[in-house]
Amino acid sequence: MKLTNETKYSTEDLRALFNAVNKHEGAEPRTLRVFTAKVPSWNAPTAFCMVLRGVAWSGSRHIDMGIPKHLLDVKAGIDGPNGIVKVPLLGLDNPQTKMVGQVYMHELAHIRGIHKHKEMQNWTSLDAEYLNGMTVGLKKSKIKKVRNLKQERYIKALTKVKAYKTKIKRDTTLMEKWLKKVRYYEKQ
Ligand SMILES: [Zn+2]
Fold this sequence. Notes:
This protein is an alpha/beta fold. Helix content is 44%, strand content 14%.
């Protein structure tokens, strides 16, 4: 399965989660794309399960999974001074991870050839107990290399001094050579 991760969630964690479902279901898509599902800002406070979504065409080998990166806070939505407040998700805790797994199980059923929703169990009632304990963290942010400007400027100054020393040495040699000639002619 080729996984394309367009979210801020850890690719390793997502892969572990979806592979656990693949193994449990005994099937897997050829390709899986995970993207950030947008939370509608105009909407009423929105639950995770309402934003989370999956798409798979029956008989195809591709699944799209949309996972929100934040939610609209219910309490803030009611009491907040600016109306609805977006709350960042700092990763997917276990209930959320299980929900992602359940939606994915539903999509995987389409991949396995089940076409009609009438023939399927509601995704929220799919057994995902085997995903207990799994969580999905955020991608580890790359540590920014701190530039040491003082050190860089010191090295630049050292290089300049070395270059001028070489130039002065060369010019002195040339000057002495010409001075010798001057003295020679003055003695005549
Ligand atoms: Zn469906």
